[in-house]
Write a structure and sequence with these properties.
The complex is a heterodimer of chains A (about 180) and B (about 775). With about 180 residues, chain A is of the alpha/beta class. Helices cover about 35% and strands about 15% of the residues of chain A. The chains are: A alpha/beta (about 180), B alpha/beta (about 775).
């Protein structure tokens, strides 16, 4: 396990991500948050762990945790195919842009989000969006659920194997009372 | 030409022996009185002339910054940490610093195109004279330089006229670079406005370059059916000496081709090009070949096919001389901008230079005389080829398998790869005896070589990929339509009405570099999708090469499958980077030729017209460069949205509209002065998309414009909804924002959309004569 940025040159300055040493930390933060949201990118159907796609783990997690999902790129159809309706879908840039707007009342109109979880985008693209949020969304905490360390997030898992990743996602899901 | 400096006008003067009437003279220039078009309000705009227009756009499309780097290290006060609201020693915050970086990128891009054009113009004037007439399309083109006319108010007729245009452009770039100095501009929106300004200037610089070279070098002159030219490594006759030209400035390549023809060896050597120089070689010489986009540099070089390399300028690998020396390939640097550390041999006898290169006494030379470059390159290639005998240092497959066993599986190659290619896994498979996973990477590798730099075992990983993909590489035998240059006036007349009314659903410009997320096939697929949907698809540069690198089920490339005309369902290759100006030029000409709007120094009105009426979108799927940033900025100011692929997010700033804010989408109805909500059309001005599926849906959506007729809007919505359903699996949830009257609803989707409209509480509105400019309102409301 390493907390170096996955892409070697992606270096942050003075405000770097805290390391998530165990998945229970994420669970605690979600429980503490009033308005969490999970942003899921296109790699959700390209990453396989233990014979399942990442998207399947995420659906389990979302159902258990009740964290609403925003699907980016063309992912909405992939969720619907699996019988899960995300709370919204829009481009990754659009969700980033809305999250920096303190006036935005969220997908349901009930108020700004205070915790944004990201997973499954191209590493550099996700890192850039999170960096934008670090600078311009002071009231928002960010977490990445990827198995790659993102230095610009508030909290990030370290670089980890696919097996460790699957394990983390399953633990998080189980802590909310879900799982296969 | 227009007046400049001292200007004297004499209405009537009687002397004892003569009568002079209506004489206008300016110092050095004779005023062109034949151009009756009145001068508009903004000829030769300075940094702030069009600021109000920019701020109107930026109010709607607010920047979304993704700084990437938290620091500023541009002055000795720094490094300054600008994280999350901190200001630097100079007072700048991260928003202003990010926009400053955008401006710097656009300045570099504009300077690069403009300097390229300046160098070429110097050369062409020296060769052909200042009075050499411009001709970009014979009788088919009267508006020869739409961007230049629009921005500067100059109607250039000769090469000499272009000097004044460039002088203006160079001044503006200098002013804009100065803005980026520490302690100048402090507001992020003003930085953005200046980036727009430099982008506009970039298009001027590009246009000058392409019309100068088209006029003098005999390139295709706005020819819809420009010939098909060979594309791909497999098209090169490697039994002959091969001269590989890399870059963007075709002047040295012309020297090579001319010398080969004069010495009657043109059928005995191969002149091939990489990156935009390749396009211009084939515009000049029908035996020239396009190897491929910028990413193919290491691939082609390491394969050993090149016997001499000639570098001109831009997008050249800066370590090419190291690479070439390993393969005993002499290098000729032919640009002052890119001397590569070589000794300047411009004034030495050609045969001495050839002898030094052939013997390996020197790895390369700098020659700043294009004709001498031609002689030296041809002679050296003929002598080097029998010695080199296409020597390459790619490892044999068995060697790769052995070397792969030394891989530590440290992951540093993958962690350094911009594509996150799974090299460690491929190396593991290679160590186990299978090169298939390395072979699979061939299509996705962008050829940067960062994997090799990172490898602690110093394994030549890129070479492994090239060798494993050898069969694919040598079977690349495709074609590209030769760059046609400008769009004819008559083509504009034919399509002006259906475009503006929305019945041709859009113009898609697929331009830019080859930093693709997953290979070039996405470019081909996107172009084909929209050509089949009867959009006009314009391509250029490396994207034009990728578009021609794949075939349909009948074995036809895009250029064989679709016409090269500016028409519905056409796929037209305008040419190299500088030819991108013709795409902006076509949009401008629609406003001028079809809508009879005056161009001369009338930027704001034309941009307002294009923004509100012309369903045009740019896609730079693999944009990587500062030039691409500048080209995009030129389109933003014209009101044309630009989409980039995922790597484009590294430009660090998007310009995004908010469709959830109805108050953002009001325009004036020029007929009444009333404000009308027209919905998010277009929704964004600069947007990164993540996948080709997303790109297709975004393209269709961003072609929607306030001026669409109900028939046009219905057609555009059909494409948007159809693509969304097919690629996203859902009906778009924002359709109601684009329906103004029920006549806009596509007939075949009426029930479904009507239900959605009811759910969303939709209300009918009017179709305005849209404008963002109060001065365009014909009747001021009481």
């Amino acid at each position: 396990m390493s907390c170096e940025p996955w892409q070697c040159a992606e270096i942050a300055a003075t405000k770097k991500a805290n390391l998530i040493q165990k998945p229970e930390i994420v669970v605690a933060m979600i429980k503490r948050a009033e308005r969490p949201i999970l942003v899921v990118g296109s790699y959700a159907v390209e990453r396989y762990m233990e014979g399942r796609q990442l998207i399947d783990y995420l659906i389990d997690f979302a159902r258990a945790s009740k964290v609403p999902i925003v699907a980016t790129a063309h992912m909405v159809g992939e969720f619907l195919k699996r019988g899960y309706e995300p709370a919204g879908f829009m481009s990754a840039m659009d969700i980033g842009n809305r999250l920096v707007d303190p006036e935005w009342q969220g997908l349901d109109g009930k108020g700004p989000y205070d915790l944004a979880l990201f997973v499954g985008m191209p590493y550099y693209m996700e890192g850039l969006i999170i960096c934008g949020l670090k600078h311009f969304a002071p009231n928002l905490r960010t977490i990445t659920l990827d198995n790659l360390f993102h230095p610009h997030a508030s909290w990030s898992f370290p670089n980890a194997t696919l097996e460790e990743w699957a394990g983390n996602l399953k633990v998080m899901t189980s802590k909310f009372g879900g799982g296969q | 030409m227009t007046s400049k400096n001292v200007h004297v006008k004499i209405g009537e003067m009687k002397g004892n022996t003569s009568l002079i009437s209506n004489l206008e003279v300016s110092v050095g220039k004779v005023v062109d009185s034949s151009w009756t078009e009145p001068m508009g309000p903004t000829p030769m705009p300075s940094l702030s002339t069009l600021r109000d227009w920019d701020l109107r756009l930026l109010e709607r499309y607010k920047p979304f910054y993704m700084p990437d780097c938290d620091l500023c290290c541009l002055c000795t006060f720094g490094k300054c940490d600008l994280t999350a609201g901190k200001r630097g020693a100079c007072g700048l915050d991260i928003a202003a610093q990010s926009s400053r970086i955008v401006l710097i990128a656009c300045c570099i891009g504009a300077a690069t195109h403009t300097a390229h054009s300046r160098h070429m113009l110097h050369h062409l004037i020296e060769k052909y004279g200042r009075r050499y007439p411009l001709d970009v399309g014979g009788l088919n083109i009267k508006v020869e330089a739409p961007v230049t006319r629009l921005v500067t108010g100059i109607r250039p007729e000769t090469l000499g006229d272009l000097e004044d245009v460039l002088a203006y452009a160079e001044e503006q770039i200098t002013q804009a670079v100065a803005v980026a100095h520490t302690g100048q501009e402090g507001n992020h929106l003003d930085f953005e406005s200046k980036a727009f300004h430099v982008g506009m200037i970039d298009h001027v610089g590009m246009e000058v370059g392409d019309i100068a070279q088209t006029s003098t070098f005999g390139f295709p002159k706005a020819e819809p059916e420009a010939p098909l030219v060979s594309l791909g490594i497999g098209t090169v006759d490697t039994s002959k000496p091969v001269i590989m030209c890399i870059g963007h400035n075709v002047v040295p390549s012309v020297g090579i081709i001319d010398y080969a023809k004069e010495s009657k060896v043109d059928d005995k050597i191969e002149v091939v090009g990489l990156c935009c120089t390749a396009h211009d070689i084939t515009r000049y010489y029908n035996r020239g070949r396009i190897i491929g986009p910028i990413s193919w540099q290491l691939r082609f070089l390491r394969s050993g096919f090149a016997d001499v390399i000639v570098l001109d300028e831009q997008c050249v690998r800066t370590d090419i001389s190291d690479e070439a020396s390993r393969l005993l390939v002499p290098v000729i640097a032919a640009s002052e901008k890119n001397c590569m550390g070589f000794k300047n041999r411009t004034n030495d006898p050609s045969d001495e230079i050839v002898a030094d290169l052939v013997s390996g006494k020197v790895p390369g030379v700098l020659i700043l005389d294009p004709e001498k470059v031609g002689e030296v390159a041809v002679k050296a290639a003929q002598k080097v080829a029998p010695i080199r005998r296409k020597f390459n240092n790619l490892p044999e497959p068995e060697e790769i398998k052995t070397l792969a066993k030394s891989c530590r599986q440290c992951n540093l190659c993958q962690r350094s790869c911009p594509q996150d290619l799974k090299l460690p896994r491929a190396m593991k498979a290679a160590a186990g005896g299978s090169l298939s996973e390395l072979e699979d990477l061939y299509e996705y590798c962008i050829g940067c070589g960062r994997c090799e730099e990172a490898c602690p075992e110093k394994l030549d990983l890129h070479s492994f990929i090239v060798k494993a993909g050898w069969k694919h590489m040598t079977e690349e035998t495709n074609n590209c339509r030769c760059g046609r240059g400008a769009v004819q006036d008559v083509e504009i007349r034919n399509v002006g009405s259906p475009i503006v009314l929305g019945e041709i659903p859009g113009i898609l410009a697929v331009v830019g570099c080859s930093n693709y997320p997953k290979g070039g096939k996405d470019v081909y697929d996107i172009c084909r999708e929209f050509a089949n949907r009867r959009y006009i698809v314009a391509v250029s540069g490396c994207s034009a090469m990728s578009a021609g690198s794949y075939r349909n089920s009948e074995g036809k490339t895009l250029y064989e499958e679709f016409s090269g005309a500016f028409e519905a369902g056409g796929v037209l290759n305008v040419g190299s980077c500088v030819a991108n100006s013709h795409i902006a030029g076509a949009a401008i000409k629609v406003a001028n030729i079809f809508a009879k709007r005056s161009l001369r120094g009338n930027y704001e009105e034309i941009a307002d017209y294009i923004y509100n009426r012309l369903g045009a979108v740019g896609l730079a799927w693999g944009a990587y460069s500062q030039k691409a940033a500048a080209i995009a900025a030129g389109f933003w100011r014209l009101g044309v949205p630009v989409i980039v692929g995922p790597h484009g997010s590294k430009y660090r700033r998007m310009l995004l509209g908010r469709e959830d804010k109805p108050e953002d989408w009001e325009v004036y109805d020029a007929r009444t002065g009333n404000k009308v909500n027209v919905g998010p059309a277009p929704e964004h001005l600069f947007q990164t998309v993540e996948t080709p599926q997303e790109a297709k849906v975004a393209i269709a959506k961003l072609c929607i414009r306030p001026n669409d007729t109900w028939k046009g809007r219905s057609i555009k919505l059909s494409h948007y909804i159809d693509l969304s359903k097919r690629l996203y699996g859902v009906m778009p949830q924002d359709v109601h924002l684009f329906v103004r009257t029920l006549a806009d609803v596509p007939m075949t989707m009426k029930d479904e959309i009507t239900k959605l409209l009811n759910e969303k509480g939709w209300k009918e509105t009017v179709i305005p004569d849209p404008t963002l400019l109060p001065r365009m309102i014909r009747k001021i409301k009481e």
